[in-house]
Each structure stands twice: as C-alpha cells, then as structure tokens.
Amino acid sequence: xxxxxxxxxxxxxxxxxxxxxxxxxxxxxxxxxxxxxxxxxxxxxxxxxxxxxxxxxxxxxxxxxxxxxxxxxxxxxxxxxxxxxxxxxxxxxxxxxxxxxxxxxxxxxxxxxxxxxxxxxxxxxxxxxxxxxxxxxxxxxxxxxxxxxxxxxxxxxxxxxxxxxxxxxxx
Length: 171
Fold this sequence. Notes:
By secondary structure, the protein is mainly β.
C-alpha cells in the first residue's frame, strides 16, 4: 500500500487507488433535481456538503459531461432530496447512465417545491437552492447553492448511505 502523500513513480496518484480510498468514506445519498426548458433532470449524488450558516450555503459536485450540469446552470435552481434506506431503487434509477429524460420522474413519487423543482416523497429531508457560484474542478464543477427552503420528512427512517461502492442503511 502506498503511504500517505506518496503517489506513483511519476508523482501522480493512481486513480483506481484513489477511487477505492474515497469509497471508504461513508456518504449520505441524495437525488438532485432541476427543471430546465420544461424538462425535469435528476441525478443521484453523494457529494452534497454544508458550506455556511450565514448565509446558508451548500455545495454539490456535478460532472461537467452530465446532462444535469448544463440544466442546473441554465435553470439556476436545484433541489436536494436526502434519501431514506427504502429509496435504494430510486438511487439506482437516477444513477443509471443514459436513462431517458422524458418520464424519468414517473418512477419517483414527488411533489414540487415553490421553485418548481421535484422533491422526492418519503425523503428524510429536502432542500431547495439557488445557484450562487460555480467553480471548475477537474472533470466536475463545484456548484454552491444558497438554501431557499428546507424541510424535514415525516418519521425519521434509516438513511441510505454509499460505502465501498454499495448502498447500505444507517439507522
């Protein structure tokens, strides 16, 4: 095993090793949503992080090649639904590459927030955000959103987490 701070012989970290290391960081699973040109866009994500309480900001990381990337920048708003463990099939669906855009929300019971974004029913919590900043970061963009609305779901359930490339439940 490579020691911390060490890379390959060329001084570049092995991408597969990095992927495995980051897979050992347990992360909550969310579905990000936006509406652009009358079309819903959604994406499963585990890169959602609180940034600030004054103002209330969070960040999401979105691959620049993802359809969601351009849609969220165009719309300027997005939703975050924090998934419960029983929503694993929705996480898998919204992580499916190349799924058709029309009708993709038909599999996911949802309501619309005041901004018009879809928020998944049964989620542990939901947020609506307005895009404030975008920072290029390799093959992703770090999108900072100002939280416009936050709501808790009903009875707390086990959370859906991503660990070692698999979904699990966290009570």
